[in-house]
């Protein structure tokens, strides 16, 4: 059998699944020392350090400049079939429409005494976007460029820098360049890994430092983002991808298996879980996983993901399945039940919810519009998808009237003296004179 089967007939048995997922969440700390050394080298030696790491890990014959020529994105777009460009445009339009609806507005309140209080929304000046190259540039994550760049553009970020690892010959995959061209992005660098994160955070001779770094990456990239957090803002600390499917007897087992496999092929650490209250469906899903996985190009990765981190789980009823799903707090949650909308109010913790049989997770990954950069490893309990807000700041605005300052002076002064801050008190009292 490709995937494990668990019968969790009571909450007391939940730890069997939860511990499996907790083990998956233990990061590889062995890379941290190397990542720190890489970041220190980039901070000290700038472009020379970055170039050295690019030559060591990606392109032995890499030559400067690190920045892609201004004409390269347009040339790449011209080299691709029009059908490919049309797909990228359609996805970009859907993503932009969704994120336009996310925009916050500045707001102000006026008191009767004339005091104005409010909040001003402003974009950061500069964002750095990490786009994985994948398998030496052969599996470029075009969707990750769209999902990070478009929210930054909608937020109003004036400068956007993209970093992505070069192929062995020093070039970038033309699909990445073409997508950048369609988005109007011209600042693109041939570098990936922890050293690229260092360049964005600290700056080099070629790269100006940014205010926010966003985008997915491997353990080296994720560790680098964690270590530079505070020097810059980051979108999130993300782990391997995951999907959890809630399914009842009405669901199609072949479709469930296909959706689970779409996550399992990402990475050997990816997790795919199906929770159902119907044993016949559970058994049918297991059969489909065996059948379908054998025919996949990345069957070795799929089999390891399914064997190590995935499960088909039988629960006593759908109430228990929903409760367990909330404990897992998955990145992607599919609801394949007769009435998925009825369950939505009870779903409290998920990065994104996909409702109904025609909303498979890959539709969200590429095309529907909501962002696919999502919290993983249970962090959906307290964090959210990458959004326009990732690239914005909120500034409080206080414009007090003379009457409000005078009326508040005694109370503020008393509070300040409770904290032994005499100068604070006098700053208010002088407004009464």
UniProtKB/TrEMBL annotation:
GO biological process: L-histidine biosynthetic process
Keyword annotations of the record: Amino-acid biosynthesis, Histidine biosynthesis, Metal-binding, NAD, Oxidoreductase, Zinc
Cofactor: Zn(2+)
Binding positions (Zn(2+)): 263, 266, 365, 424
Active site: 331 (proton acceptor), 332 (proton acceptor)
Binding site for substrate: 241, 263, 266, 332, 365, 419, 424
Pathway: Amino-acid biosynthesis; L-histidine biosynthesis; L-histidine from 5-phospho-alpha-D-ribose 1-diphosphate: step 9/9
Gene Ontology MF: a single term: NAD binding
Principal EC category: oxidoreductase
Catalytic activity field: L-histidinol + 2 NAD(+) + H2O = L-histidine + 2 NADH + 3 H(+)
GO CC terms: cytosol
Textual note on the cofactor: Binds 1 zinc ion per subunit.
Pfam families recorded: Histidinol_dh
CDD domains found in the cross-reference section: Histidinol_dh
EC number: 1.1.1.23
PANTHER family: HISTIDINE BIOSYNTHESIS TRIFUNCTIONAL PROTEIN, HISTIDINOL DEHYDROGENASE HDH
Family note: Belongs to the histidinol dehydrogenase family.
Role this protein plays: Catalyzes the sequential NAD-dependent oxidations of L-histidinol to L-histidinaldehyde and then to L-histidine.
Annotated protein name in UniProt: Histidinol dehydrogenase
Gene: hisD
